[in-house]
Amino acid sequence: MNRGKESVGFIGLGVMGKHMAEHILQAGHPLYVYTRTKEKATDLLEKGAIWANSPKEIAESTTIVFTIVGFPSDVEEIYLGEDGLIPNGKTGSIFIDMTTSSPSLAKRLYEEGREKGISVLDAPVSGGDIGAKQARLAIMVGGDENIFEHILPFFQLIGKTISYMGNAGSGQHTKMANQIAIASNMIGVCEALVYAKKAGLDQEKVVAAISTGAASSFSLSNLAPRILKEDYSPGFFIKHLIKDMTIALQEAEKMGMEAPGLALAKKMYEQLAQEGEENSGTQALYKYWER
């Protein structure tokens, strides 16, 4: 490991975070990691990452910290709790939250950080486990543009499409637009597969035939094949998509906007979650028609 490179902290080693952190480690940066379940860090620790016992220890060990956790409540605790990043961070630190969270919380973290001389970016990602593993994530960033430019080389280690969207909260608003598009699209993908099956067609041939035309989408190309293999393992959890859709509907309501497609998708996913599918991948929406 090149100890001349800047140290980095990483909090959250779930389905996506573990791959993102590994790309930073492989680039030669000393990497401090923390996650609530230490076992999730085993592979990274064996490859040279350094364990920290809390966000506070991360904040005390480095001035660049990435976070990607589950829910806005987790983000708030990690950033603003007694052992959190902002209360224990050094002046000049840069914290980058890559969780899909609420735009209002992103703005609050930005303001709380600024009062302590700490910069905070909201930088949610899209691309699921595949994009994280292949370092091909789409990254949508809000915050100060000069801080974005400073962190850009790190973003380039984990993503392919990296977009500066504007002031604090803009990254999260962009991710909400992304989730709105995904939620309704997944309904269409699943309905198309069910229709093809009932029509007596070979579903694999249907996916191959329509995935390069006007119906093409990430969900059709990457998740439909998983459905056909009855692989419902999470590239992105249903419970997290429900969280995202809830935030998007709340933000839409604040703006006086109706979102009927999003509302329908949320209702369908909530029914599946109630039936025990909350930890399945979003492609498990296909099971809605098998109920």
UniProtKB/TrEMBL annotation:
<dbReference type="InterPro" id="IPR002204">
    <property type="entry name" value="3-OH-isobutyrate_DH-rel_CS"/>
</dbReference>
<dbReference type="InterPro" id="IPR013328">
    <property type="entry name" value="6PGD_dom2"/>
</dbReference>
<comment type="similarity">
    <text>Belongs to the HIBADH-related family.</text>
</comment>
<dbReference type="InterPro" id="IPR029154">
    <property type="entry name" value="HIBADH-like_NADP-bd"/>
</dbReference>
<dbReference type="Pfam" id="PF14833">
    <property type="entry name" value="NAD_binding_11"/>
</dbReference>
<dbReference type="GO" id="GO:0016054">
    <property type="term" value="P:organic acid catabolic process"/>
</dbReference>
<feature type="domain" description="6-phosphogluconate dehydrogenase NADP-binding">
    <location>
        <begin position="8"/>
        <end position="166"/>
    </location>
</feature>
<dbReference type="Pfam" id="PF03446">
    <property type="entry name" value="NAD_binding_2"/>
</dbReference>
<feature type="active site">
    <location>
        <position position="175"/>
    </location>
</feature>
<dbReference type="GO" id="GO:0050661">
    <property type="term" value="F:NADP binding"/>
</dbReference>
<dbReference type="GO" id="GO:0016491">
    <property type="term" value="F:oxidoreductase activity"/>
</dbReference>
<dbReference type="InterPro" id="IPR015815">
    <property type="entry name" value="HIBADH-related"/>
</dbReference>
<dbReference type="InterPro" id="IPR008927">
    <property type="entry name" value="6-PGluconate_DH-like_C_sf"/>
</dbReference>
<keyword id="KW-0560">Oxidoreductase</keyword>
<protein>
    <submittedName>
        <fullName>NAD(P)-dependent oxidoreductase</fullName>
    </submittedName>
</protein>
<dbReference type="InterPro" id="IPR036291">
    <property type="entry name" value="NAD(P)-bd_dom_sf"/>
</dbReference>
<feature type="domain" description="3-hydroxyisobutyrate dehydrogenase-like NAD-binding">
    <location>
        <begin position="169"/>
        <end position="288"/>
    </location>
</feature>
<keyword id="KW-0520">NAD</keyword>
<dbReference type="InterPro" id="IPR006115">
    <property type="entry name" value="6PGDH_NADP-bd"/>
</dbReference>
<dbReference type="GO" id="GO:0051287">
    <property type="term" value="F:NAD binding"/>
</dbReference>
